[in-house]
Specification:
By secondary structure, the chain is of the alpha+beta class. Helix content is about 30%, strand content about 30%.
Length: about 210
């Protein structure tokens, strides 16, 4: 009896895991055509990555289920990495309400904290590696920061000479499911094409403005 029960549980686990992998593999379905020469990759049951090009510039879209935050529900982040060279002489990172649990970000490794510019969200924390090079650029970033964070979903803007990355909140796990199982369940993890397009466009516009000013 015990062996039969164990076998049934094993079968159910395998079935549910197979379904989850298939579902997660479909989250970029609506994003077909956003990137040229797009390739989808997936490691095990993790959310996949979609990599391709926009106007000849390498772009990667990645979904990350963040379950590390203490006393908070898991969050599903969209990370958009754009390998567009930017004319900046340092590394800059703006993050909304950092709590030292953002393992996916270099934010805490940047030692210098700059004053938050006027017009930026009050809970934005600005870090960099070379304040003398980065501080004069912040005013040029104001419209991009305000647009990106205006709906309360923009989490991070990271800019470096080799490119930039944006972290955007897609969804938050169902509370009841997470409290019962300690596993996240997201209702809206199939990405909206217009939302993804807007984040990509924001990144390219930011890079273009920095390159124009410098």
């Amino acid at each position: 009896m015990a062996a039969a029960g164990s076998a049934a549980l094993g079968w159910m686990y395998h079935r549910d895991r197979t379904r989850m992998i298939a579902h997660r593999r479909s989250v970029f379905e609506a994003c077909r055509g956003l990137l040229d020469d797009a390739e989808l990759s997936q490691d095990g049951a993790d959310y996949p990555r979609l990599a391709g090009c926009r106007n000849g510039v390498p772009v990667e879209l990645r979904l990350l289920a963040d379950t590390i935050q203490l006393r908070k529900l898991p969050v599903l982040w969209l990370l958009v990495t754009i390998q567009q060279p930017v004319k900046v002489a340092g590394v800059f990172d703006m993050m909304i309400r950092p709590d030292n649990s953002e393992y996916y970000s270099p934010h805490d490794r940047l030692r210098t904290v700059l004053p938050t510019p006027v017009g930026w969200p009050d809970d934005a924390v600005v870090r960099c590696d070379r304040p003398e090079a980065v501080a004069p650029l912040l005013d040029h970033l104001t419209p991009h920061v305000c647009a990106f964070t205006g709906e309360g979903r923009g989490k991070e803007l990271f800019v470096a000479p080799r490119g930039l990355r944006l972290a955007y909140r897609v969804d938050e796990s169902r509370r009841g499911h997470y409290l019962a199982t300690r596993q996240p369940l997201f209702d809206n993890d199939r990405l909206d094409r217009d939302m993804v397009e807007s984040v990509i466009a924001r990144g390219f516009a930011l890079a273009a403005d920095l390159n124009r000013e410098n």
